[in-house]
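Batch manifest, entry 17 of 40.
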Amino acid sequence: MSEVNSKRIRASFAVLESIFGAGKAEFCDLAAERLASGKRALIVTVNPEIIMNAERDPQCEELLRAPGVISVPDGIAVVMAARKFGKQIKERITGVDLAQFFLEDADRHSYSVALYGAKPEVLKALCERIAAEWPGARVVAAYDGYNHKDDAIMDEIAALEPDIVLVALGVPRQEKLLYSHFPKFNKGLLMGVGGSFDVLSGLKKRAPAWIRRANLEWLYRILREPSRLPRFFRSNLPFVRLVRSERRRLKGRR
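Output type: C-alpha cells
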C-alpha cells in the first residue's frame, strides 16, 4: 500500500495524494479541454510554502482538498516529497509556464482574461506584451495589487465571467482569495501565479532553460534576489524536516 493515504498521512500533506502526476503537456491538454467546454477549476501550484501554510492555517488546508481544486507540483521539493510518499509524478509544473500557456490558448481561441496583482508598472508592461504577442487574448480586467480591495475586485471580476483569471498577490493571499470567491464563478480557470507577472511582462529575467532542467531555478532566484532567502528558510527547510519526520512516523506505524 502506498504511504500516501489520507487516513494516515498528516492533513497538510494529503494534497500529495491528489496532486497532478502527469507532465506539463498532459496538464495543458486538460486545461485546454476545460476552457473549451466552459468548465471551471481553481488551480493551485503547490510548493513548500503552500504546504507549510496548510500546516498552520485550516483554510489553506481546506482549499487544497476542496472539490474543483486541481493541484499541480510547482517546485522540485514537492515532486521529491510526493515520490517519497509513493506518488508518481512525472515532472514539476510551474505557475509561470501555465500562465503563459493560458495566454497562448486565449490568443488562439479569443478567450477573455482577467488580471489582478503586481505593481502598476509590471501590470502595464504585461498588458502591453499580451497585446503585442497574444493579441487574440481579450483582457477584460486588469487591476494592480496595491489597492487593498481584494473582495470588491474579485466581485467585479466574477461579474465579467472571464475564461481565465490570473491573480498575482503572493502565497497564501492569492489562493485564499480565489478559494473564497470560487463559488461565484460559473466557468473559467482561476490560478494564483505569485511573481509570474514580473517574468511574463519581460521586466524580470527567468532562469535559463538548462538551470530549469537541472531543477535549480530556486537557487537561481535566491542568487539573483538574496531578499528571498528568509522566505526560503521559513518554508523550504521546515518542509524538508517535516517530510522526514512524517516518513519516520508513518514507517513506525506499519
